[in-house]
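U., I forgot to send this yesterday:
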Amino acid sequence: MGLLILLTLLIEVGVLLYLEVKAWHTLYTPLTFLMLPYVAVLLLTVAVAGRWGIVEFYYPSVVYWNVGLLLFAIPSYVMGFALQKHGKPVIKPIDDGNGMSKVATILAVIMCLLFIYRFKVVLGTSTAPLGSDEFGMDYDGHGLWAHLSKFNLPLLVLCVYYADRKKWWLWVLMILLIAITFLHQVKGWVIIPCVAGLAMRLYSGKTHLTMKFVFYIVIGAVAVFLISYILSLVVGGSAVLGGAIIEFILRHFLHYVTSGVLGFSMDLAAGMPDKGSMEVLFAQFVNIINLITGNNEIISQVNGVFVYTGLNYTNVRTMFGTIAVYTGPAQFAFVTVLISTVIYLLKVMTIRFRSVYVNLIYFYECALLCMGWFEYYFFHLDAIEVPVMTIIVMVIVSLLDSKTA
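Result:
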């Protein structure tokens, strides 16, 4: 029965992918970003489940993705085929001008200098060791610096998108911005803007999708974990870099990759003891409203129920798993279709407005979908704050770029 469920998902994904390309004439769509990484991680998880002390996989958890992907595809096909029916284009190239603007480049330089200064201050005042979560919180985890760190993300996406062999300064800025983001010790927030920038490059043809490209992406993802744990265990701790530490890091890498799929599998098998209210899925909006109205209640997006997978503890449930935890059947359908509709409307906007900044917002949201194998990211403030920061960058560039020409 488990293999039948898995086979059903693979067939469904194949059919949906075919229809998606027919609807939009491209692979780089929200549904594709959501389902293909999940399938890859699911197959890896199924391959390792029940081995080396890892828990067995509960196949009925896949059914939520069967249903979720079908629901998510509805707005895609409605919009895509409706545009074609009325003779409208479903794909247009990004209008990236003559490269990254001078103003955006200057903004990136200023932000790098600000955060280098911030690092120097925190390094001298924080009692937390470098590379720890506590150091990351002191560095940019709250207040003005937390919001400024989100201002860095669209600048990082722009650097990834525009970098080439001739523009060495963009590579320098990109590395500095990645290093700055690294210090917060949240691996997803390093990966997501890089995925967004690379997706824009693939969509625009600056980079081509090849096996070599995929190989480099995998190596880059592993490098993120190696550097992150080396920073916390060796630089910030007392560990000595060696074979045991590398094995420990790789084991944790396997845990990170499988934690969402296994976490939801175990959660569903246990009867979802973490069931909660749907308002958690819109926590950032609820918290903003509470702040405006003087209500001190803050909704936490952190799932308090941890399960042990045999590798480590996890409290993440994949995108559709988390939606299922906080909804019933009708609410599940509503939330899924709503998210899909919003992101596909963004896609339509990239056709209407070819601006690199509109595309940046769209591909950033697609990058959040790309992490759906891990968790539901749309209840974090970043899902709306990064688009707002992108608009601010766009406004600053439009006001000042002509004066620096």
